[in-house]
Structures are given as C-alpha cells and as structure tokens.
C-alpha cells in the first residue's frame, strides 16, 4: 500500500481501532485510551507497509495482540514499582515528628480500623513486607494497600491541619 492509501485507511478503520480497544477493555474514559489508540494506529500503519491488502480478521487479531502485549508490559512495570516501593521504608529521623506520631498513636489507636492497626503493627513495627502481611492475614495485597491509603489519609489530616 502507498502512503496516501494508508492515511485514508487509518481514517476508514478508526471503527476497528475502537472495537479492538473495547474488546481489550480499554474504554474511552480510561486515561490511557488515547495512548492505546495511537499505538494501534502505528501498529496498523507498520502492518500495512508489509502487506498488500488488509485482511480484516487477521488485522483485528494482530491489533488485539498488540494491545494485550502493551497491557502486560504496563502490568509488569506496575508490579516492579510496587515491589520497589514495598522495600523502601524510610525511618523517622526527626524527633519532633516521631513524638507527634507517638502522641497520635496513643490518642487515636482505638479509633483506627482493624486493618489500619494491622498495617501499623506489622509494617511499621515488625517491618514485614506487604506480601508477608497479606499471606499472614489471608487478604489480598490490594486490601493492604487500601489500609495503607486510609492510614495515610488519617496521618495527613492529623499532621497537616492548620
């Protein structure tokens, strides 16, 4: 195919790109939708350069594979980031912040949810990893991350109120 034909094909096959993204569960309200859409256009363009005709079922499968491959790469990168974040635990070197934290815990320990208490006890005091906590209490890692997020909200509102 010539370049002009490919450019018109890109315009004509936009419905195909939307269908591939829908089948791959990448929806228009997703923040990555435009990135995936552009990636599909590039993959389509590269595939059209090597083929004389566009075989629609074959092209559909090829584009689905491209999206799934990109999703797997993103998932792997996210897991690597989570693992590196899990290993990073900065100790409190500021005596004033440490005393404020102790005061906060003595006053608010009963007000914390069971999950927040578990997270504090196991992660901060015992130094266990997210996976170890999840295995011990038989909950998912996302549950542990939720406990951490809720605790961070409480700590943030306690330390940063005016």
UniProtKB/TrEMBL annotation:
Its protein name is: Helix-turn-helix domain-containing protein
Native source species: Enterococcus alishanensis
